[in-house]
TrEMBL record:
<dbReference type="Pfam" id="PF22638">
    <property type="entry name" value="FlgK_D1"/>
</dbReference>
<keyword id="KW-0964">Secreted</keyword>
<comment type="similarity">
    <text>Belongs to the flagella basal body rod proteins family.</text>
</comment>
<dbReference type="Pfam" id="PF00460">
    <property type="entry name" value="Flg_bb_rod"/>
</dbReference>
<dbReference type="InterPro" id="IPR002371">
    <property type="entry name" value="FlgK"/>
</dbReference>
<keyword id="KW-0969">Cilium</keyword>
<keyword id="KW-0966">Cell projection</keyword>
<dbReference type="InterPro" id="IPR001444">
    <property type="entry name" value="Flag_bb_rod_N"/>
</dbReference>
<protein>
    <recommendedName>
        <fullName>Flagellar hook-associated protein 1</fullName>
    </recommendedName>
</protein>
<keyword id="KW-0282">Flagellum</keyword>
<dbReference type="Pfam" id="PF06429">
    <property type="entry name" value="Flg_bbr_C"/>
</dbReference>
<feature type="domain" description="Flagellar basal-body/hook protein C-terminal">
    <location>
        <begin position="425"/>
        <end position="462"/>
    </location>
</feature>
<keyword id="KW-0975">Bacterial flagellum</keyword>
<dbReference type="InterPro" id="IPR053927">
    <property type="entry name" value="FlgK_helical"/>
</dbReference>
<feature type="domain" description="Flagellar basal body rod protein N-terminal">
    <location>
        <begin position="7"/>
        <end position="36"/>
    </location>
</feature>
<dbReference type="InterPro" id="IPR010930">
    <property type="entry name" value="Flg_bb/hook_C_dom"/>
</dbReference>
<feature type="domain" description="Flagellar hook-associated protein FlgK helical">
    <location>
        <begin position="99"/>
        <end position="329"/>
    </location>
</feature>
Length: 469
């Protein structure tokens, strides 16, 4: 072993501990940086020669320390779990928010809710039963019908506006996903080039992981490792990013809720080939709102409007107005079939209200109040409009409560997974301070070792072999 080999070992120690200190400083500087993963210098002992030779032997002591590799501390399994839980949390959050907005559209419970408007309308018929011969009682029936119809139309318009807003949000989301996927592909390319050249790419990997987590939130993206540190991003079994190539998504389907059919619904597809993509995350929640949640309550509301019109018109037809004529339709449609959006009051003359259940005698109309009472009693029907509406509101309340509860549970799970991820990849200042002191003392020791070797060599070179003094 060379006399000067100790200097080389001490020099590698100085360089390794200095680099370890640099990395520790980088960790401390980025303690609050989003997506930053703590780094560690991989210290490896430089061993003796492993190739035997007749005139080349190793004493087995080694030649110092190597600190060429700086590792990024990350747990791939926890990252994958994080992608899954973030996607589930984002989807449940959208569904819970959707149901809360649907509840707002019906304004229940409250004085402006449809249930209250129904009660006031039936009360109007009760008042007409008490005073069938007054124009005031007849007029207030029409006014309360107008108010009820306005409430139905408002709720329908609110649901339609919510659907269209969600559809627009989905378009914006997909555009954002395409931009993020293109950036991930560019980072993959840079990371691959850096790794092939033996250069560090930890900061690039951190930026990429932040974007991948964003894609998991947006569309439920997952990853699979590729060559030279690259990652492939997959959404619903379809590749969104493959190496340095990215593929765009698009939104297909109608932009009007009235145009939805069993075979043509809003959906996320590949921009090339138009293949359906089973998205999760926020996109999956928005698709659920567009195709299931909002259309379900729009359909039920339309059924309630149609049922109200049918029952009211049928009962009104059995009575007679002030002129002794059979009652006509009270509720109809502005255009097409009767829905919550198109329902309207088609009677405007109070004298046409068929409050009497007795026809004219010898051409003289009767002022009986039986039909008004009959109509007022429709509110008591087990399968009537009121019962159907109350059942829908109860179901909506239960569904919203379950959705909010599921979202709260998922939020706890996601928080726990994030905490586990942070415990591995996050910067702990106490740990970094401990490492800094350790590297500092090691650096000082290596410097002291060089001083000792220098003094030894000085004695060997300058003071050994002096004769006669």
């Amino acid at each position: 072993m060379s006399t000067f080999s100790g200097l080389n070992a001490a020099t590698t120690a100085l360089w390794a501990q200095r680099r370890a200190l640099d990395v520790t400083g980088q960790n401390i500087a980025n303690v609050n940086t989003e997506g930053y993963s703590r780094q560690r210098v991989d210290l490896q002992a430089i061993g003796g020669s492993t190739i035997p030779a007749f005139y080349s032997t190793s004493p087995g002591i080694g030649a110092g320390v190597s600190a060429d590799d700086v590792q990024r501390i990350r747990d791939a399994f926890l990252e994958g779990r994080g992608h899954t839980e973030h996607a589930n949390s984002a989807r449940l959050l959208v569904e819970a928010d959707t149901l809360e907005q649907v509840e707002t559209a019906f304004r229940e419970p409250g004085d402006t809710g449809i249930q209250s408007l129904l009660s006031e309308m039936w009360d109007g018929w009760e008042d007409l039963h008490n005073s069938p011969d007054t124009d005031a009682a007849r007029t207030q029936v029409i006014e309360r019908l107008e108010t009820l119809v306005g409430g139905l139309q408002f709720s329908s318009a609110s649901l339609e506006a919510q659907w269209k807003q969600t559809r627009e949000n989905l378009d914006v989301l997909v555009k954002d996903v395409n931009a993020a996927a293109a950036t991930v592909a560019e980072l993959n390319k840079a990371i691959r080039v850096a790794n092939q050249a033996g250069l560090p790419a930890n900061d690039l990997s951190d930026k990429r992981d932040v974007l991948v987590m964003k894609l998991a939130d947006q569309v439920g993206a997952t990853v699979r490792p590729g060559q030279y540190g690259t990652l492939d991003v997959v959404v619903g079994g379809m590749a969104l990013v493959s190496g340095s190539n990215s593929y765009e998504l698009a939104v297909a389907g109608p932009i009007d809720p009235d145009l939805i059919t069993a075979t043509d619904k809003p959906r996320i597809v590949t921009a090339s080939g138009n293949y359906p993509v089973a998205a999760g995350g926020t996109g999956g929640g928005q698709l659920s709102a567009l195709n299931v949640l909002i259309p379900n309550y729009r359909t039920q509301l339309d059924g309630i409007a149609k049922g109200l019109a049918d029952s009211l018109n049928a009962a009104h037809a059995t009575g007679f107005d002030l002129a002794g004529n059979p009652g006509g339709d009270v509720l109809g449609s502005l255009s097409g079939p009767i829905t919550a959006a198109s329902i309207s009051v088609v009677i405007s003359d109070p004298k046409l209200i068929a409050a009497s259940s007795v026809g004219p005698t010898a051409g003289v109309p009767a002022l009986d109040n039986g039909n008004a009472d009959k109509i007022a009693q429709l509110r008591q029907q087990v399968t009537g409009t009121d019962a159907t509406y109350r059942k829908m509101i109860v179901e909506l309340g239960v569904q919203a409560a379950v959705a909010i509860r599921n979202q709260d549970i998922q939020a706890v799970i996601t928080t726990q997974v994030d905490a586990a991820r942070e415990s591995v990849a996050g910067v702990n200042l106490d740990e970094e301070m401990t490492n800094m002191l350790s590297y500092q003392h090691a650096y000082s020791a290596a410097g002291r070792m060089i001083t000792a070797i220098d003094q030894t060599l000085d004695t060997l070179i300058n003071r050994t072999g002096l004769v006669g003094r």
